[in-house]
Amino acid sequence: MAILVTGAAGFIGSSLCDALLKQGTDVIGIDNFDGFYAREIKEDNLKNCFQHNNFKFYEADLTDIKALEKLFENNQICQVVHLAAKAGVRPSIEHPLDYCQTNIIGSMNILEMMRRHNINKLVFASSSSVYGNCRADIFSEDLKINEPISPYAASKSALEQFIYTYCKLFNLQAVCLRFFTVYGPRQRPDLAIHKFTRLIDEGKAIPMFGDGSSKRDYTYIDDIVSGICAAINYTQTPYEIINLGGGEPVNLRQMIAMIEKHLGKKAIIDHLPSQPGDVDKTAADIRKAQKLLGYEPHTNFEQGIQKFIAWYLTRKKVF
Ligand SMILES: NC(=O)c1ccc[n+]([C@@H]2O[C@H](COP(=O)([O-])OP(=O)(O)OC[C@H]3O[C@@H](n4cnc5c(N)ncnc54)[C@H](O)[C@@H]3O)[C@@H](O)[C@H]2O)c1
Description:
This protein is of the alpha/beta class and 319 residues long. It has helices at 11-22, 39-46, 65-74, 90-94, 96-116, 151-170, 192-201, 221-233, 252-263, 287-293, 301-315; strands spanning 2-6, 27-31, 55-59, 77-82, 121-127, 173-179, 182-183, 205-209, 215-216, 219-220, 239-244, 250-251, 268-272. A seven-stranded parallel β-sheet has the order 3-2-1-4-5-6-11, sandwiched between helices. A two-stranded parallel sheet has the order 7-10. It has a two-stranded parallel sheet with strand order 8-13. 42% of the residues lie in helices and 18% in strands. It has one domain (2-184, 218-247, 279-299): 3-Layer(aba) Sandwich (Rossmann fold). The chain binds nicotinamide-adenine-dinucleotide. Nicotinamide-adenine-dinucleotide binds at residues 7, 9-13, 30-34, 36, 42, 61-63, 83-87, 102, 106, 125, 127, 179, 181-182, 188.
């Protein structure tokens, strides 16, 4: 029996596959190499996976129901970790229908395949963006949230609800993990830490939206992978929403200063107004993750930035 990981060629997906394969789990990956960023980067992410005999990969789109049928018919799958998505917040404002197609229709296809093939365990990648511009000091899972401020956030919120419905009706057991800005080796090139590192390194100006006081709760990739693995093994209750954060919000100016320090270069800053869709702050309450999953973030922001920059400096020659 294998675990199906959707979005396996992506930043988080490939890191999770590496960890599962290392512990001897059979893994099936699916990814369509979506054009949001370069295919070569995603192929590189998968290199280590292909060294393992217990890894099987399908290049397919979640919206292609026939391809999914084949995959589910030809494999023994015990559970699904559903990470595939169109993941950018700002592009979702330009292309809401694309986000609906992949994040909602594609995800519904996965839920339907699971129902038809009696696979009843799911871990889903939700996002801190579902909290919108939440006023609370710290974001806990029981806050009433119904004001997403981007189509991306709305798509994640919708899926949490569809998954709840499938748990109620069809005996599904699911954990929706709300990831708070994930960073580290293989981070998507569109995300601020990666983009700023590249621009500062190349001596180009970085766009700083707003006054630099916006805060993000950054989560190091290894901590996210540990949290996903704990959710894979969690079976106590039929449906849970659980935050996975770093627990240490950092503002934009501090983030830039940390990159400057470890890259050894000064940033040129292009001051721009705040962007629609961007939230002012994210701050994860991780007590539920600690209680239910035994989750504990182990990499603080400075250590994480050091590891990211070390990785970036080796990879920049490749890309
Ligand atoms: N990185 C973060 O900070 C963060 C924060 C919150 C939530 N998330 C969520 O975690 C998940 C993984 O994010 P990531 O940062 O690794 O993004 P990523 O873009 O690196 O990975 C997503 C993968 O899904 C694939 N994909 C997209 N559409 C597909 C489709 N129609 N069919 C098959 N595959 C498809 C892409 O090719 C990509 O490899 C996403 O669901 C994202 O929304 C990420």
